[in-house]
Amino acid sequence: MREVFMSTYLQQTVSQLEHTCSKYHLGAAVVLVFSIILLPLIPFLTLAGFIISIILFYQAQEVSGQKITFESGIQGERRLRGILSLILPDNYTVFYGYQIPNGGDIDCIVIGPKGVFVIEVKNHKGNIAYTSEGWHHIKIGQRGTAYKGSLKDPGRQVVRGSMEIKKLLLSYGIKVPITALVVFTNQDAKLFVESENPKFKILKVEELPQFFEHLPEKLKDETVERISRVIEANKK
Description:
This protein has about 240 residues and is α/β, with parallel strands linked by helices. The chain contains five helices and ten strands; from the N terminus they run βααββββββαβββαα. The chain has helices at about 10-40, 45-85, 155-170, 210-215, 220-235; strands spanning about 1-5, 95-100, 105-110, 115-120, 125-130, 135-140, 145-150, 180-185, 190-195, 200-205. Helix 1 runs antiparallel to helix 2 (about 45-85). The protein is elongated and about 80 Å long.
C-alpha cells in the first residue's frame, strides 16, 4: 500500500505541549529559588513566590496530561498503520491526517478496489460500550474505583469526516459509497457493541483483517486512482 501523510498535527501538538510544560517547570523552579533567597529579607514576597511556584507546577502537570493524551493518539495511529500495512496490497492508498475545512481532521482514509473508508482512531483504555443511548466509557482507577472516561462521540466525528469526503468527491463528479469506521486500537480496551448504527461500524483494530477480507471489490482501478488524486490535491 502507498501511505500519504497530509498533516503532522499530533506530532506538532506534542512538541508544543512539551515545550510549554518545560517552561512552566522552569518558571516554577526559578520562582521557588528566588523565594528561598528572599525568605530572610522579605517574608511576604517569599509567601507570594511559593504560591506562584505551586500554580506554575500545577499548570505544568495539566499540560503534561494533555501531552500524554496526544501521545496516546499517536500510538493508536501507529498501531493502525501496522495492521493496514499487513493486510492491504499495493493498489491501496492510505491517507493520514486529512484536514477538514472549518477545522478538525480525519485520522485515516483508505482508498482501494474494495471502497473508500474513513477511519476515526481511538486509543482509549477501559470498558467502552455503544448502545441505543450512545457511547459509555468506564475506566478503573489504581485503587479499583470506577469512573467516567474521556471518550466523547467518535461516531459523530467519523460521520462528519465521511460526509466531508463524500461532498468533496461529488464536487469532482465522483459518486461512490463511503464506509465510516470507528477503530479502537488499545489492547486494554474492552469493547461492547450492543446496538448497530447504520452510519458507521465499530471495530477493534485486530478485527480489520477479517473485515477487509470479506468485502467484495467495488471500484475499478481508474476510479481508485482518480479518488486518490482528488484527496491528495486537496491537502491543506
